[in-house]
Amino acid sequence: MFAGRPVLACNSGGPTESVQDGRTGFLRPPTPEAFSAAMATLLDDPALAAKMGRKAHKHARRTFSLETFTSFLEEVMYEMLQ
Q: Is residue 51 in some structural domain?
């Protein structure tokens, strides 16, 4: 995502927390048919791929930045002290 490319991942586990299906990439069942259909969508529509890539980059910067991590850690520490 940070590289400005849409992500294609399995619709389970960790990716479901970071990939926004249809916005920053595609979450699909782990089958060749599902993955190839998603890849074909991006190849057939370069404008869509570019738009999703921009959104993916923005999402990655906002979600995984040092500032976001620091704020989250500070909040957790504050709650532990209460």
A: yes
Global model pTM greater than 0.70: yes
The amino acid sitting at 13 is: G
C-alpha to C-alpha distance for 21 and 74, rounded to whole angstroms: 29
Q: Tell me which residue range forms the domain holding 58.
A: 7-81
Please tell me the total count of domains within the chain.
Answer: 1
Q: Which of 43, 26, 44 is nearest to 35 (CA)?
A: 26
Rounded Cα distance between 72 and 36, Å, is 37
For the segment 29-66, what is each residue's pLDDT rounded down to a tens digit?
A: 999 999 999 999 999 999 999 999 999 999 999 988 88
Q: State which H helix or E strand residue 8 sits in.
A: strand 7-10
Residue 10 class from Cβ within 10 Å (0-12 exposed, 13-18 middle, 19+ buried)?
Answer: middle
